[in-house]
Amino acid sequence: MTEEMMDQALEGVDMLHICGIALSTSELSKQNALALAKKAYEKEIAICFDFNFRSSLNDEEGMASLVATYNIILPWVTIAFGSLRDLKELLKIAVESEEAIVESFMLKYNISVFAGTYRHQKNHQKQLQGFIYQGSEKIVSEKEIYEVWDRIGTGDVFVAGTLTGLIEKWSLEKTVKFGVYSAVLAHTTVGDSPVLSKAFVLNYMENQVDVIR
């Protein structure tokens, strides 16, 4: 991307989201993602980053380069999405409890918000649970049962739902709940792009109806 293209892309933008998979798909996509993130940071645009790590795209030799890239981009990031595995296995944060690991990560990189999901299985039922850290506060949603029609893109939908709540300044409880319900419903639709409206998700979240007439 040229400087002009990046300036045009960021014009009027309040937040930039970088999906971590862009750091692994090719050298060009990595350099473009880093350049765009740096430009956004210089313009004081909030940056959101989702680790979205894929082992199939990273061999052992490439892992050191990937971690080095994380260490470039993370200091520019305000909101991060990921898992405990990302922090422990990729960033090698070696402390005991989940809370201590997340606290260490957020302090090291000056992250304001860190969020993600837990997947559970009980009595042959799949359950999804969301978490969000902001400062010293941690909010965990209820476990929601879900059925899988197509799982592709459901993590991205959790991110989009959670960002919606953060941007609209909802409570953390409502924010992570909306992210979870968005992801739960996304398991029932085909494709990796969200097709359900905010109003639809909120209605289902609040009323749990099977049929809307």
TrEMBL record:
Gene3D superfamilies: 3.40.1190.20
PANTHER family, alphabetized: 2-DEHYDRO-3-DEOXYGLUCONOKINASE_2-DEHYDRO-3-DEOXYGALACTONOKINASE (PTHR43320:SF2), SUGAR KINASE (PTHR43320)
Pfam families from the UniProt entry: PfkB (PF00294)
Keyword Mitochondrion set for record: no
Gene Ontology molecular function, alphabetical: kinase activity
Organism: Candidatus Enterococcus avicola
Domain Carbohydrate kinase PfkB: 146-194
UniProt entry keywords in alphabetical sequence: Kinase, Transferase
Name of the protein in question: Carbohydrate kinase PfkB domain-containing protein
Top-level taxon: Bacteria
